[in-house]
Specification:
- The protein is mainly beta and about 500 residues long.
- It is built from 3 helices and 41 strands.
- Strand 17 and strand 18 form a beta hairpin.
Length: about 500
């Protein structure tokens, strides 16, 4: 009994003895060393490629069954190299439809039979190459692009062609702001009536070395408020209008516009233009460029025909037209008030129009270094606007320069036009200086403040101009100017000016 009690006593004291032992060494000291580099070591080569994860390793879900290796590997062959590190896709609309419209080329590259499907499949900034007619055929479809891409022609035998189905647009671009769609060497054809050929809903669209045939369509291009259009070395054929932009940005360089339709004034309905009212734009008819409350520029290029060659209403950053040629339009340019931006016209050449340039009251503009010839009515008409008319040549017209009261707007050539309230007061008036006006049939400069059966205020300056007017024409006709425009230092020649053109 005594021995049993002593054994239990030793067992009960044992844990206390164990707790009283000195602390053992750190158990982590004896772990086996690891053979992967430390975090500090990896900083020495930060640009080393990241190893790919084995596709057969699946952590959170069952692994997909592995497919057998195909005999012809799918890769981009030597004839379709990647561009700037981005993939390239090939479209051949002449191939018969396969499974989901796709085939493979001789090098295993993927070939689509639809631009639309290629655009949906392509990753951002990819390039889509279209086989042109002859080697392939015209792509009859309406293309919708939602991301940044480049669409171009494959090979050098001609332009790829995209033709819109009846009543549908050729191209609709809705791209995240800041991204762009680039189109190079492609021709678009549309017969959509009220549907534009190319609609830019958002983002930037850059079109180079391309053509648009929109005969039978109201607009070749329609650029909406969040859109930006850049055209370079392009041609637009239409029997209505070429480019319409409202509260948007445009940049055109060497763009030729041919308007084959009837360009009588009756075919133009300008409706109401108001930059603040986003639903106000109702421009219909034959207009080469209709830029409402927009910003940007046009450099070079030509416009032939149309009721109005260029309708310009500037946004806050203004519009600039340089070295533009306009021929056989009823009105070469119509400048309307916008969002306090200035419309600048430099070195324009306007010939064989009814009116060369018409400036509405309240529109700020500068017209310099331009040549306006063979106008059936007037070279430049300013309705009391604060505009600068300087260093221009105006030859062969009824009236070379006509200064009218703001209340006289709109002119009879625009019977359907209505606009925001115009300025009828002292806005400084037009400044007309250092112009050459010659070979007129009525007056080199006509100043008329009448409108609605009464006289109106008309301010401005007429200084330093050289005028040629043979009898019975006159140099300055200001019989109806009760509030005289200041007339100083103008030279009147009663003979015909030699004009070689």
């Amino acid at each position: 009994m005594t021995a049993r009690v002593m054994r239990w006593s030793r067992l009960s004291v044992l844990p206390l003895a164990v707790l009283a032992l000195p602390a053992a060494a750190d158990p982590y000291d004896n772990l086996p060393p690891y053979d992967y580099p430390s975090e500090a070591a990896t900083q020495g080569a930060p640009y080393d490629p990241v190893p790919e994860i084995d596709p057969s390793w699946c952590r959170w879900r069952p692994c997909a069954p592995r497919h057998p290796v195909q005999s012809a590997p799918r890769h981009t062959g030597p004839n379709l190299p990647g561009i700037n590190g981005h993939p390239t896709l090939l479209v051949d609309c002449g191939r018969p439809q396969g499974p989901r419209g796709r085939h493979h080329g001789p090098h295993g590259e993927r070939v689509f039979t639809s631009v639309n499907e290629a655009a949906e499949f392509a990753p951002p900034n990819a390039t889509i190459l279209i086989v042109p007619p002859g080697e392939g055929m015209t792509c009859v479809e309406s293309v919708h692009v939602r991301g940044p891409l480049t669409i171009a022609t494959y090979g050098g035998s001609g332009r790829a062609v995209i033709q819109a189905p009846a009543g549908a647009p050729c191209l609709r671009a809705h791209i995240p702001l800041g991204d762009e769609l680039v189109i190079d060497g492609v021709k678009f054809i549309s017969r959509g009536r009220e549907t534009p050929c190319v609609t830019v809903e958002a983002g930037r669209v850059v079109m180079r070395n391309s053509a648009v045939d929109s005969r039978g369509t109201d607009w070749g291009f329609d650029v909406q408020e969040s859109g930006e259009l850049i055209l370079e070395n392009a041609k637009i054929e239409t029997d209505a209008s070429a480019v319409h932009a409202r509260r948007a940005a445009v940049a055109l360089k060497n763009v030729d516009i041919d308007i084959a339709g009837r360009n009588m004034a009756a075919s133009l309905n300008l409706g109401r233009t108001d930059c603040l009212d986003r639903k106000a734009g109702t421009i219909h008819g034959s207009v080469g460029l209709a830029l409402e409350c927009s910003e940007g520029s046009m450099e070079g290029g030509s416009i032939i025909g149309g009721a109005v060659g260029i309708l310009a209403s500037a946004g806050t950053r203004g519009l600039r037209f340089t070295d533009v040629k306009i021929t056989k339009a009823d009105t070469g340019m119509l400048i309307l008030p916008g969002q306090r931006g200035v419309v600048t016209v430099e070195r324009a050449a306007i010939a064989k129009s009814h009116d060369g340039i018409v400036v509405a009251p309240g529109a700020e503009s500068q017209i310099t270094g331009s040549v306006i010839t063979d106008s059936r009515d007037t070279g430049i008409t300013a309705f009391g606007a604060g505009t600068l008319i300087a260093s221009n040549k105006i030859v062969n017209a009824d009236d070379g320069i006509r200064l009218l009261a703001p209340a006289a707007f709109p002119p009879p050539v625009f019977p359907e036009f209505s606009a925001v309230a115009m300025i009828d007061g002292d806005d400084g008036g037009p400044i007309v200086q250092n112009n050459l006006v010659a070979n007129v049939r009525h007056a080199a400069v006509r100043i008329d403040a009448r409108a609605g059966g009464r006289q109106h205020r008309l301010d401005g300056k007429l200084m330093g101009n050289t005028l040629y007017a043979m009898s019975p024409a006159v140099c300055i006709d200001d019989d109806y100017n009760d509030d005289p425009v200041r007339v100083r230092a103008n030279t009147c020649n009663r003979e015909r000016f030699f004009w070689p053109f």
